[in-house]
Each structure stands twice: as structure tokens, then as C-alpha cells.
Amino acid sequence: MGMIDDLLTAINEYPREDVAISVTNFKEPGGHINVGETCSFKVKIENNGQLDMKDVRLHLEGTRYARVTATNIFGFPFGFSGSAITGGQNINSHSNKTFGTFHMRADAATPNEGTENRDLFKIHISSFDADLDHVLRDHSHHAGNPEAAYNRHIHPA
Q1: Within a domain: residue 32?
Q2: 121 Cβ partners below 8 Å, 6+ apart?
Q3: What is the tens place of the pLDDT at every residue in 87-102?
Q4: Does residue 144 sit within a domain?
């Protein structure tokens, strides 16, 4: 494979290799979640690698137990559905960004009378633009080699 093919492979594998996704600030109405209740949460993305990620969009996907939605401009959930895609945000290399607020509505009880935890929704990166600015600019530095010198003999006056 050539260098360009290697670069494409590295970009395609970047989210799996260098990005962490976590649910934060999960707020439920009580000590447990009942069918019909709505919970809110945020999503944290950690970019632990060398690429700047531009226009990062998330895909939230509900399971058979819950539906998801984003928040409207008034701070309320709108249109619960099986999935939602966020607007894009930039996440520089070695930094993180919190997306949110999102909402989840519990639609069905989990098996075993609700005592066993099950996935209620899943989140992955829907798309992003890879940016090499950090690699090409921030890793440039003073280079001692190679160097050139000019030499000549200087005669006395």
C-alpha cells in the first residue's frame, strides 16, 4: 500500500483508535427509571489523537427500550424517535467537547422486572472531517540538521 492508502486507513480507524465517547450528566426523575419517564444527558467526546476533528456529528440510536431526541431552542425535547443526528462541532487534537443536552424516553421495561441493566441507547460518530493542521503545524520545530555553513579564508587588511 502507498502512503495515501495508509493515511486513508488511519483516518477511517481514527475514531476507534483515538476517540472516547461517554454519557455524562445523566439525570433521571428518581432513583430508577420507569416506563414513560424522560431523562436528560450530555455526551462527551475525547479526541486523544493527533488529528483535529472538524464538523463532528453524533448519531444517537435508541434501543427497543427507549427513544432519543435532542433539545429544541427552548430547552425541551422534541420528537422522540429511534435515532437522532447532531449538528457538527470541532474538537481539536488532545482535547474534548461536551455535546448536549439530549433526552431519552423509556418506552418499555427491561427484562427481569427491571433489575438487570440493558443498553437503552447507543452513540457513535456519524461523520467528521479530518484536519491535519495540528500534525503539520504544531509538530514543526527548530531543526538542527541538516545545516549549511559558508566558509572562506579572510586575509588581513
Answers
A1: yes
A2: 60, 61, 62, 63, 66, 68, 104
A3: 789 999 999 999 878 8
A4: no
